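Q: My labmate handed me this sequence with no annotations at all. I'd like to see what the chain might look like in three dimensions before we decide whether it's worth expressing. Could you predict it?
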Amino acid sequence: MIFHIRYFGIILFILGPFSLTGQEFEFLETKEGISLLENDNPRFFYRTVPVDINSRFVRANYIHPLYGLDGELLTEDFPDDHPHHHGIFWSWHQLYAEGKRIGDPWLNEGIEWKVIKTETQVRCKKAVLNSEILWMDTLNSRAVLKENLTITFNRVEKDAYTLEFEIKLKALLDGVAIGGSEDDKGYGGFSARLRLPEDVSFHSVGGNVEPQNLPVTAGPWMNISGICNSQVVMMGEPENLSRYQGWILRSANSMQNMAFPGQTPLDIKKGDTISFRNQLLVHRNLSREKIMVHYLKFRGDMFFKNRSGLEN
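A: Here is what I predict for the chain of 312 residues:
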């Protein structure tokens, strides 16, 4: 199914009436991380140091909690079924340096995340958090990747907000590569461990989507409904991901994932950078058409100019 450029002309019509008058943001920093408040209501917490519990799966550099429109908790951290899942996170099973396998970041093996710098600002009615992170090879006490992360919160409607992630990974050594799970699923990359009700459902550009064991081919966004009082849409840029595999979807006891680069590792030359963007849209009962409008705004003007439509 193709959604043509006719959507472009209704963006201002749908989104224009909403006013942000009186909106206030505040970042609060503690020894464990940074919280964002919107009009004194918590929106998310970015963890900068591992939580102080007895677990081999503790780590930094992820979002939890993420809160819904009514302050409800949307994410899970250290769930019993997969204690290596952490709210909104991005990771891979395979990590190589100098051509040798050095760890399994997905399972917190052989790697740790050292947040070395953070910066927050409010600009143009958006709240922005920047972070610089080193992916450390724990066995050899050396940095393998430098990550530059930008998280942008934007209240886009009375009952909707977006959280955009821009992630850049720069190889600091020769022979660096990342890869997903080494089975046919090939999962890895941007992931969301959400609190899922028994009646959870998924839909994308072309309608309802049924989870499968292997990656599912669907549109560039996925709406996950039935999560407390809020629904969550995961968005990405599939055509910009190296060897994009599709959607890993689970209706219980797991995460949702836009999988790349699959089971074959992706080489990153020393000094080179790979980057990808994702966005979460937290909303209350937006139509498929309005979700599509927000997706097109996420993609930006250059996407409008370069594409005449979107295929399911």
